[in-house]
């Protein structure tokens, strides 16, 4: 709106200046042509009178001048005409001289421009020039615009040359021009104000609905799906509002349907998982009985009993994971936080994973400059996170050493599990927390994982306000880092460990989240997703 008013004002000033200039020039030229004709006629008549009159003395000549020249005065109220008779010094060779005089005691030096005086004295034609005429108004001496015409006349009896000037007062015309200019600028100002009011009304009628649409869009984005635009009339803005409301209603219906489908899916998984627990418990009891009596079976039945027992156990673990995921989806997961020593949890996880480490011939090493790190956390959930990370490292470590790094700063504790096995690409690291995701679908699981371990670990970390992040490089191994706030109400800003940790000891200071060590392998990755196993 401001730019529109500025441009309009500039246009009005330009147009007003152009109109004023054209009017002034046109009016001036018209009056100039009129005055030229009048002056030529008047001066010619005076010359003719002086040439046809026979006088012999100075007194008669003076009387002739005084009788003739006043007839040049007048010219009308809009442009009064005056005269001046002045001597021409170069031509005054006789003692017979008429004293210069003029209307209202005007003198040549006061009213006639120097260039016109010079032209008249040296030439024989009629000349003209703009001038400024002295006048008295309310006791104040003023100068008003005028036009002066001049020529030489010859007075008898000595045929002495004099300069005769006719002066036209243009103050009336100047007043007319001032009035026209005033009308133009006042009209331009009123037009500018009118345009400003129109622009304001139009802008308000257009910007108002757009601003309202932006506000409604923000509310829709915030989840207030019932918000709609107010529409009035049948113009384009009203049609836009109606289309916007139609779109919002369609989005609301689709989002509501998707939410209902998601709730139905979550409820279905939860219901099925609960319903399967009872028959699965019965099947497991039967499988345990068969497994205990397998030595009495023939080799085929014995092997069948062992497979049945192992698969029932794996199915029960999968069912437990599904139930846990359904709790997270339903928002029913509860955090039972208490002061917990991370070192004790790590040692407990290592003890539980030692048989698998022995079978893979992998050595698990804890690297830390500390011996105790206490945080406010749910020990069951942190134990589950660490167990998933260690089992994944053993699964993919290819029998190479597994390093567990522990470090802390005043606000946080970090645990990083680093293997040196097959590794994973940055794309895999970004998806590793997806449910049931596997980097190599053809690769068999040797730990009996459900494919939900890292997904559950991620949800456990979120409950604590923690970070669970992954890094990997093909052929160089991978690293998972868990960063926990020491206090439940704390907000994480930096991690005590880089990702991946340095190979020698621990870093001396805190590192920003996702910052790799100087000697670390490239790439970084992910904090949400599923399981590699």
Features:
transmembrane; 5-stranded antiparallel beta sheet; 16 strands; 3 domains; alpha+beta; disordered C terminus; rod-shaped; Heat Shock Protein 90; 533 residues; Beta-Lactamase; Helix Hairpins; 11 helices; HisK_dim/P_dom; 5-stranded mixed beta sheet; ATP-binding; 18% strand; Sig_transdc_His_kin-like_C
Description:
Strands 2-1-5-4-3 form a five-stranded antiparallel sheet, sandwiched between helices. It has a five-stranded mixed sheet with strand order 7-9-10-13-12. The protein is built from eleven helices and 16 strands. The protein folds into three domains: 1-182, 2-Layer Sandwich (Beta-Lactamase); 236-325, Helix Hairpins, CATH 1.10.287; 335-485, Heat Shock Protein 90, CATH 3.30.565.10. The relative contact order is 0.06. The protein is 50% helix and 18% strand. With 533 residues, the protein is of the alpha+beta class. The chain has helices at residues 2-52, 58-68, 108-111, 114-122, 171-221, 236-292, 299-330, 342-360, 379-396, 426-431, 453-463, and strands at residues 81-87, 101-102, 127-137, 140-155, 160-169, 338-341, 364-368, 374-377, 402-408, 412-419, 433-434, 467-473, 477-485, 494-495, 511-512, 529-530. The radius of gyration is 54 Å and the shape is rod-shaped. Residues 504-533 have low confidence and may be disordered. Strand 9 and strand 10 (412-419) form a beta hairpin. The two termini are 62 Å apart.
